[in-house]
Amino acid sequence: MIRVADRLFRGRTGLVLLEIDAGQVRAEIRYENCEGGQEDFPHIYGALDLNSAVRVSAFEPGEGGSFAMPSRPAGESSG
């Protein structure tokens, strides 16, 4: 995910990162490899239900323009 953000959005400010509960998304989700890499990424084909976003985090690039995953508050797990 970070590689994609760095390639497509390097240095761009004002972005947010959404953590999505796929079980709450009504539209079709396809796991695809659209650019010939080694990983499949989820693509949502339709509207994103707002209630499926379980976390919204600021996603600002660091010095040099690259991104890193935002840290979670102490004691909070990733799922």
Q: Biggest sheet, open or closed, and with what strands and sense? A: 2 strands, antiparallel
Order of helices and strands: HEEEE
| C-alpha Rg (nearest Å) | 14 Å
The coarse overall form would be: globular
The portion of residues assigned to helices is: 10-25%
**Parts with pLDDT < 50 across at least 5 consecutive residues:** none
Q: Could you give the count of β-strands? A: 4
Number of helices: 1
**Order of strands, widest sheet:** 1-4
Mean pLDDT: 89
Structural class: mainly beta
User: How many angstroms separate the termini?
Assistant: 17 Å
Structure description:
With 79 residues, the chain is mainly beta. The protein has one domain. Helices cover 10% and strands 27% of the residues. It is built from one helix and four strands. It has one helix spanning 2-9; strands at residues 16-20, 28-32, 41-45, 53-58. Strands 1-4 form a two-stranded antiparallel ribbon. It has a two-stranded antiparallel sheet with strand order 2-3. The radius of gyration is 14 Å and the shape is globular. The two termini are 17 Å apart. The model has no long low-confidence stretch (mean pLDDT 89).
